[in-house]
């Protein structure tokens, strides 16, 4: 009743009910009479009364315990073993430290052999965990196990009450009281060197109190033994194989041996009675027929291999944590084997980096670049579970990838072991922790150094393999990581007009730039063949100027964000005002602009201002009659096509970001020369208008755009085909002039007069 009147209990009806249930159970446990049960009914640990002894009230309210155990921690029960193992490991670290100044504290023989022993009993539904640590006195039991708030759960409950993520419960350390996730009742037997008495602590999951009494069972010598009486729905933990799996997941790298009492089938040589008797009968028959001398010696027993089940203490944490050793002591073969075993890979890593950080914070890390990309490339940005976080060798989680590494490096696999993070680490703690921010910066820097080392190797095949697998990640990094964009730029690779079948770096491009060249030219296309045939690069390639070919959708966005490399700006050759740096070319362009000024104005009016902003004389065309380029600050044709294909694209953004189209004509092409002659003769010539419309449509397609009305475009093509058919398949002399660069214009003029 007093608990029911507690101010905090009145605040929530749920806590009142929990308190009343706890008081009722407390009285029930004190009742002297035991209930009679049916023979086939299994008695749970909670049904059995606790041992008599000194009864103490928990210093924290019982409803708080109920909230933590039943409501908050119910979703992940596996972590109880991790927490109890960590407590035992800490206790043995303490006794080992004490023994440095007091050697007698550690003892001799079995007492000095520090280990953790775990044993399960399916019949009694119990799990026992025994360590040889410092142990506890009676005072320690009251101070440390009697106050729930000291177990670390108070902070956890506050976090849950403020809207914390319940799925992270498995990562939040709850210390000793995590035992109640799986147990109705918990017994602790402990012996300390500072106390001549061995004590027993005991409590039930829904009890408001606990008992402490002197323990008269077998002496522990020193250390602590925790016995869990399992709940009905947690009987799967009374299985040695289940616990073995959990130990490998969470506690494989604990520095002390973890011994698990488990069975194992072992081969034994035993006598095969049937075979022995058969052989003996044969010998007896031969002896009777041929005599003893010919029968020979009496045959011995026939042996066979029989598999027998043996129970014994078996070590569960065989793997050695490589990251705690000095890198100079570890061979490459050991690193490779550890990588394959830990991350379930079958290829050796392309590179690894093993380092320690000491100073204001301390942590150890071991990073790997895999030898191949995962098969699920379409899911490359999903949580990869590549980074495994440990705290003092205790596995915490592999769900913190983005908190430890930027997502574009999610392919980097590794181990991070920190001494400065608490076991009760959650995503909220990681996001707010200064320690984690420092760790993330160091991991990022070391990862980029590791990738740069691959790029600088003499054997370029290694980086080619890396680029094929993870090149898109590097491009994504240029977009997302502005602080490291310069470093990432040095790691980028692209095909180009001079790269052949391989790729080149931006540094290689800059090294072989022309003296007159001011920028790095690039063109985005669907394939290398399409880029090489594009009209935008005709004159550049003819003048031996290299052009980068961007063949993946992310490429153009990456270079746009990078903006410049080695003080050289990137220039999209599919946009307006491309400067080739050729002074003679510029002078000729001015002359051509004057000569074809009237044709440019006529074309702009004939095509329509809604389709093209203006028509100008081109400085980049060599073989094509015309192209459409876009304004500097809008989308290119390639980007417009990519954005149209987006399932969740925004039409408002499309209208705003579309580049203004500018038509460029080639003044030396026969088609343009003929059109110029037609316009000079008659600006209303219907043939000239038809030619202008067809030139615009074909320029749309050759420049990477799509005609707005494909049917009209088809009609124009069919009309041209019909005109050719009506003349018997002959072509105009203007077209013939296209095959003759000398005097082509004269032939066109003669045809017009005729």
Characteristic key phrases:
754 residues, 28 helices, nine-stranded mixed β-sheet, disordered C terminus, single chain, 23 strands, 40% helix, alpha+beta
Can you describe this structure?
The protein is of the alpha+beta class. Helices cover 40% and strands 18% of the residues. The strands form 4 sheets. A 9-stranded mixed β-sheet has the order 1-6-5-4-7-3-2-8-9, covered by helices on one side. Strand 5 and strand 6 (209-214) form a beta hairpin. The longest helix is centred in the N-terminal third of the chain and has 23 residues, at 79-101. The protein is elongated and about 120 Å long. The chain starts with 6 loop residues before the first helix and ends with a helix. The model is unreliable at 1-48, 149-157, 165-173 and 730-754 (pLDDT under 50).
Biggest sheet strand line-up: 1-6-5-4-7-3-2-8-9
Give the CA-CA distance, first to last residue.
Answer: 117 Å
Report the total helices: 28
Number of strands: 23
Rg calculated over all Cα atoms: 41 Å
- Main sheet overview: 9 strands, mixed
What structural class do helix, strand and pairing data support? alpha+beta
Portion of residues in beta strands equals 15-25%
What portion of residues is helical?
A: 40-55%
Mean pLDDT: 79
Uncertain runs are 1-48, 149-157, 165-173, 730-754
Q: So what's the overall shape?
A: elongated
């Amino acid at each position: 009743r007093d608990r029911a009147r507690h101010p905090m209990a009145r605040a929530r009806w749920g806590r009142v009910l929990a308190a009343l249930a706890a008081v009722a159970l407390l009285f029930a446990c004190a009742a002297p009479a035991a209930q009679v049960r049916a023979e086939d009914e299994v008695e749970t640990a909670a049904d059995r009364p606790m041992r008599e002894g000194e009864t103490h009230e928990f210093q924290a309210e019982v409803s708080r315990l109920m909230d933590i155990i039943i409501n908050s921690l119910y979703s992940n029960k596996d972590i109880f073993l991790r927490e109890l193992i960590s407590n035992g490991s800490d206790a043995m670290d303490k006794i080992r430290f004490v023994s440095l100044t007091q050697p007698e504290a550690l003892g001799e023989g079995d007492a000095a052999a520090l280990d953790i022993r775990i044993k399960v009993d399916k019949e009694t539904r119990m799990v026992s965990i025994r360590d040889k640590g410092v142990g506890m006195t009676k005072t320690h039991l009251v101070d440390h196990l009697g106050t729930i708030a000291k177990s670390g759960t108070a902070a956890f409950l506050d976090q849950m009450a403020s809207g914390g993520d319940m799925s992270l419960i498995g990562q939040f350390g709850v210390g000793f009281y995590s035992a109640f996730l799986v147990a109705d009742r918990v017994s602790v037997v402990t012996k300390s060197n500072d106390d001549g008495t061995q004590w027993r602590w005991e409590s039930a999951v829904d009890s408001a109190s606990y008992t402490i009494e002197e323990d008269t069972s077998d002496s522990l010598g020193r250390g602590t033994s925790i016995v869990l009486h399992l709940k009905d729905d947690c009987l799967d933990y009374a299985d040695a194989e289940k616990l073995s799996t959990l130990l490998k997941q969470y506690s494989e790298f604990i520095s002390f041996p973890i011994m698990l009492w488990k069975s194992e089938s072992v081969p034994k040589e035993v006598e095969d009675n049937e075979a022995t008797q058969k052989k003996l009968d044969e010998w007896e028959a031969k002896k009777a027929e041929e005599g003893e001398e010919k029968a020979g010696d009496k045959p011995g027993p026939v042996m066979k291999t029989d598999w027998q089940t043996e129970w014994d203490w078996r070590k569960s944490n065989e793997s050695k944590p490589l990251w705690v050793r000095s890198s100079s002591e570890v061979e490459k073969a050991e690193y490779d084997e550890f990588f394959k075993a830990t991350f379930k890979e079958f290829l050796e890593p392309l590179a690894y980096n093993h380092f320690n950080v000491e100073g204001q914070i301390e942590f150890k890390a071991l990073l790997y670049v895999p030898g191949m990309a995962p098969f699920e490339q379409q899911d490359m940005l999903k949580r990869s579970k590549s980074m495994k976080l440990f705290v003092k060798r205790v596995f915490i989680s592999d769900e913190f990838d983005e908190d430890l590494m930027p997502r574009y490096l999610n392919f980097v696999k590794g181990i991070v072991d920190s001494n400065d993070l608490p076991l009760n680490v959650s995503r909220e703690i990681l996001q707010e922790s200064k320690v984690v921010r420092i760790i993330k910066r160091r991991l990022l820097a070391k990862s980029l150094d590791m990738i740069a080392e691959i790029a600088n190797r003499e054997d370029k095949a290694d980086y080619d393999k890396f680029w094929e697998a993870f090149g898109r990640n590097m491009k994504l990094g240029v977009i997302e990581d502005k602080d490291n964009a310069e470093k990432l730029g040095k790691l980028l690779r692209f095909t180009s007009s001079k790269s052949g079948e391989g790729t080149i770096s931006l540094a290689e491009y800059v090294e072989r730039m022309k003296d007159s060249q001011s920028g790095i030219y690039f063109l985005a296309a669907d394939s290398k063949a399409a880029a090489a045939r594009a009209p935008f690069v005709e004159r550049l390639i003819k003048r031996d100027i290299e052009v980068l070919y961007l063949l993946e959708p992310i490429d153009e966005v990456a270079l746009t964000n990078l903006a410049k490399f080695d003080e050289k700006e990137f220039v999209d050759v599919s946009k307006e005002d491309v400067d080739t740096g050729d002074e003679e070319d510029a002078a000729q362009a001015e002359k051509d602009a004057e000569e074809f000024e009237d044709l440019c104005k006529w074309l702009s009016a004939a095509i329509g201002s809604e389709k093209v902003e203006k028509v100008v004389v081109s400085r980049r065309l060599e073989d094509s009659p015309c192209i459409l380029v876009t304004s500097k600050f809008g989308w290119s044709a390639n980007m417009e096509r990519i954005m149209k294909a987006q399932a969740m694209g925004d039409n408002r953004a499309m209208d705003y970001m579309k580049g203004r189209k500018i038509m460029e004509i080639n003044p030396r092409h026969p088609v343009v020369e003929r059109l110029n002659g037609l316009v000079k003769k008659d600006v209303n010539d219907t043939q000239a208008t038809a030619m202008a419309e067809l030139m615009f449509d074909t320029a749309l397609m050759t420049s990477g755009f799509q005609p707005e009305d494909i049917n009209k475009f088809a009609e124009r093509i069919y009309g041209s085909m019909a005109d050719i058919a009506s003349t018997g398949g002959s072509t105009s002399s203007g077209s013939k002039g296209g095959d003759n660069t000398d005097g082509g214009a004269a032939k066109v003029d003669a045809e017009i007069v005729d």
